[in-house]
Specification:
Helix content: 25-40%
Strand order of the largest sheet: 1-2-3-5-4
Number of domains: 1
CATH topology: HIT family, subunit A
Strand content: 15-25%
Structural class: alpha+beta
Radius of gyration: 17 Å
Number of helices: 3
Order of helices and strands: HEEEHEEH
CATH architecture: 2-Layer Sandwich
Amino acid sequence: MSNYQENIFTKIINGEIPCYKIYEDEYVLAFLDIGPLSDGHTLVIPKEQKAQLDELSDESAAAIGRVLPRLARAVMKATGADSYNILQNNGSAAHQAVLHVHFHIIPKFNESGLAITWGSGSLDEKRAQQLVKQMQDALE
């Protein structure tokens, strides 16, 4: 059961709030972020109203997967950037501000764009085997 509550993306999908639309089909809407981290920062959202990626239907997930590379190419061509980040967060603890599935395409220009520090840990062999087994079981 989804914990989805209407939000700004719901209003954009329903046409209640305007957006700078880049792409739209039956399942997906893409538009410019109005608080961009860099020039061309684009949001890609499913029209299906779900808060987190794991809640999406296969149809919506596949539709995003089909169009995301095309949109990334368009953003790169339009902005002239040669690097970019695709960012997707799930849940408040993971820094998801709008609780509707969304992907950010963020062009990277020198210092502008997404800044990330990556605090890597290590993977224990026993824990790795346990995780693989649990995840494979969950896929069945």
